[in-house]
Amino acid sequence: MNAIARQEPFDLNDPALRARAVAAARGDAPFDMLITGGRLLDTVTGLIREADVGLVGALIASVHARASRIDAVEIIDATDGILTPGLIDTHMHVESSMVTPAEYASAVLPRGVTTVVWDPHEFGNVHGLDGVRWAIEAARALPLRMILLAPSCVPSAPGLELAGADFDAAVVTEMLRSPAVGGVAEVMNMRGVINGDPRMSAIVNSGLASGKLVCGHARGLTGADLNAFMAAGVTSDHELTSGADLSAKLSAGLTIELRGSHDHLLQEFVEVLNGLGHLPPTITLCTDDVFPDELYQSGGLDDVARRLVRYGMKPEWALRAATFNAAERLKRSDLGLVASGRRADLVLFEDLTEFRARLVISDGRVVARNGSMEATVQPLDTAPLIKSVKLPLLTDDDFRIPAKGERVRVATIDRPRFTQWGEAETYIRDGFVVPPVGSAMIAVAHRHGRAGGTPRNGFLSGWGEWRGAFCTTVSHDSHNLTVFGGNAADMALAANAVITAGGGMAVAKDGQIEAILPLPLSGLVTDASLKDTASAFADIRKAMGKIVDWKPPYRVFKACFGATLACNAGPHQTDRGVADVVTGKVLEGPVLEIF
Fold it and tell me: Beta 481-485 vs 439-445: how paired, if at all?
């Protein structure tokens, strides 16, 4: 991990830069840039006031009375605009948007997002340490500030799944040595931490020893389990499940990364926070996962702020969470506030309801105007990410469960997202188990070349009636090839379309491919434009509506991508079988009894 990122925040302490800023602040030298005529949102007091702002290099040199200075190399007219700090996304995965980091940066910078905290565990799960190195290099040349975190759970549930790599404490420690890495990424193996598993304890302790952040994934934790998780050194959570869960975790003292990817919960969260009468300093905002069509149409963290305001949060609160609170969480005193001596990361918004960014400044340079990039975005060669799907073509029988006898009792995975064990009886026909009435099939095949690639099959209950099949290599978090369906023929057809494409997604129905999105880079992203990727992903969504009836908020398209997330409580299908992190049990196949 020898890649060197921008030496922030220490770059602002250059004596010559500080001396120039001091002289400009006194009035003895001109500013490099002067922003005049606008109003300033103070993210500490929440007040909006008239003020002009003078910049010297990457530093804010002066915040002063309107029209009191006119000496500057460049003057920007901010009339009728509201100046705020650049937005900070405290937890996200570039890979979820299915485009390259360069394309992602070009999408969010014009919307006012100047800093993101990226957990590249998707690339890590596929390519190992080389994937994280690639992410560091990809981020280094971008005008979007990307603070990377060291993936802590590769795989997320050791022994229950097999990813493309295995990150132990030694690997995490090596990543943390890089100045580009800001801490340990979301610790998802909650049970391992709570039970004092030596592997997870060593990983968390490596983060503590580094003095950097140790971020969490505390889904469903309460009482003694939550206390144990936090006592180990984990300090944040974004996996909130309800307003009561938000209240409990605020009271417990966790930093909250309030995420926009679960919109059905946001109004409840706003009601809880409004009921407090103030915004706790431990509330930050994050996107977590933004699909390409959502990113293209609505944006990133700006969209989270917009929706929170729509649900009744004060705009000043949403912006404080997305700026000052976030900077405090990251221990970045140079960010999050428009004040003399801070970093010149600024956004000029047209309003505080739609959050349309007229101008975006990063490190004292204009990077975007009126929704369009002005700064150069330099992509990194993507050749190291290709050929990640190491699987032969599959047959219909790979998606059937052989058995001898007449009738059979099988285990089922009941309910999307909040799974539980179930059982069903069915019969055997022509040497194969017939899926139980009302069930769907799921199959996961190891695709990283570290083990055999024969699919492990299971049955889903509560997922509706499937009239076709869906295959994806975007399958959290080991990203093995995952297929859902109502019949083996369509499942094989969809799987082979994805294998041939080198990764991605495909929908099959009645022996035809209805839609396909090739993702040949890591099986996760494409080097196509965001516009084209969004269009292809929208076609996948539309095709999915033809083969299964969704029932929000849990039986939704997005649930397909987390159905293999074995670190969460309850049974989950993985490339090893049906796995349960609570019991440690793995069923290689769902057959329990033949009679």
Answer: antiparallel
